[in-house]
Specification:
The chain is an alpha/beta fold. Helices cover about 45% and strands about 10% of the residues. The chain is globular and about 60 Å long. The structure holds fe (ii) ion.
């Protein structure tokens, strides 16, 4: 007698873990040329973050690629927290360049620019065709893209390990994403030496993003609590927590708790910055499978609605809320709200960050662990410091509710009233 799965449960029974192949270590970026050859690339569109180029970090990598006989088409028009227009310019340039591979050297902004340039120059159409529904049309690319070699230079987005590119759409006052497994880089090279001299403010924001990726993934609703999709095609990229994603997220939190303060305090502490690089990639694998939810849902309107904040020590003149800060400011209140859904996992997350043990009913353990870390690395104190007041809360709620793809994996689905309370509590975290 055979029993079909549908007779067993109406809930999901399957999860998937995928990871970008990662090469890690001091000096690993000098293998860039070798990796491109291995991937069969002869002519590459190379997206280089201009700030990174100015720090002298990109030149040896470019040299390694040239020495391997790969033709390079360099592209330096990388916006921090890129808009759809910046992506559009990159798509145009990549289409004109007729290349057979892509390279990104920089933070999440550079890697995401390369992902979208690769996607749209390979399959045509408009960027909005591919943007997640309901903001865009959510079209799935019909086949694999050309190989992308991702070389992150800041420990943050984990974009080297994920299928996602994040973009700002100023006309809609919204930040959202494009996500598909074909966008995952073919190879990542994670080289701690590249973080040397990266500004501490950048390391702080990026590191807090890492910690949130890991904590949100670890606390996302179990994949078995989702309804089972009708077909494999309908299975969402963000599946909810599962035993394998938990391993990556847990270790990323441990490294965040142990090394972020040091990585921010000393720009030459490549040991601490190296562990944060690993932490970022590990968290990327974890959230690429499990997903992020409330803090990231709130972060998009926080970063998208107003551009009036400048964080001290951040390079460039652009007024914007760095992504990690936009995420972390609502994390303490979000995890206070979700505590009931899985108290023991919240306590475990706090223990990963601090190494301490907590009483079973200590709902402040995780918020307090995050607040201490935020203060120690110079994060903004709350949503108010980023330029918002109570009158902005309805617009922020509306923006957060647009991120249904993310909220779907929250361990507890927030109502409008819940989001209002979270945002109100997050105005002044201290
Ligand atoms: Fe993030």
């Amino acid at each position: 007698m055979s029993i079909s799965v549908s007779e067993l449960t109406a809930n999901e029974t399957i999860f998937t873990i995928e990871a970008t192949p990662v090469k890690y270590g001091a000096g690993a970026s000098l293998d860039a040329g070798w990796e491109l050859k291995r991937l069969g690339v002869t002519r590459a569109f190379v997206v280089v973050d201009p700030e990174v180029r100015a720090r002298g970090v990109a030149a040896p990598i470019l040299e390694s690629m040239r020495a391997s006989g790969v033709e390079l088409v360099e592209y330096g028009d990388v916006e921090t927290e890129p808009s759809i227009h910046a992506f559009g310019r990159a798509v145009q340039a990549a289409t004109a360049a007729s290349v057979d591979g892509f390279v990104a050297i920089g933070g999440g902004s550079a890697i995401d620019t390369a992902k979208v340039a690769n996607l749209v120059s390979t399959h045509g159409g408009e960027i909005m065709d591919y943007v997640n529904a309901p903001v865009g049309r959510g079209v799935k690319p019909p086949s694999a893209l050309r190989p992308l070699l991702a070389i992150p230079t800041t420990p943050g987005s984990g974009s080297e390990a994920t299928t996602v590119a994040i973009l700002d759409i100023p006309e809609l006052k919204i930040k959202t994403g494009i996500s598909h497994r074909f966008m995952r880089p073919a190879q990542a090279i994670v080289d701690p030496e590249l973080t040397r001299t990266a500004p501490s403010a950048v390391i702080a924001s990026a590191g807090l993003d890492v910690v949130c990726h890991a904590a949100e993934s670890f606390l996302s609703r179990p994949y078995t609590s989702r309804p089972r999709p009708e077909t494999a095609d309908e299975r969402p990229p963000y599946q909810g927590s599962n035993p394998v994603a938990d391993l990556w997220s847990g270790q990323a939190m441990r490294y965040g708790g142990q090394y972020l303060r040091r990585a921010v305090a000393d720009e030459h502490d490549t040991e601490a910055r190296g562990f944060m690089m690993l932490s970022a990639t590990m968290a990327g694998v974890g959230f690429g499978s499990a997903g992020v939810h409330i803090p990231h849902s709130c972060a998009y309107p926080i970063a998208g609605l107003k551009h009036s904040y400048r964080h001290p020590g951040y390079p460039g003149e652009k007024m914007f809320v760095p992504h990690g800060f936009s995420v972390i400011v609502t994390a303490p209140a979000s995890f206070r709200f979700t505590f009931d859904a899985a108290p023991e996992r919240h306590l475990l997350a706090a223990s990963f960050l601090t190494g301490q043990q907590y009483a079973p009913d200590d709902r402040e353990a995780l918020p307090n662990a995050l607040l201490a870390l935020m203060k120690d690395v110079g994060a903004p104190s709350g949503v108010a410091e980023l330029g918002y007041d109570e009158s902005d809360i309805p617009a922020l709620i509306e923006g957060a509710l647009k991120q249904q793809r993310l909220l779907a994996v929250s361990p507890k689905m927030p109502t409008e009233a819940d989001l209002e309370r979270i945002l109100r509590e997050s105005m002044h975290n201290w």
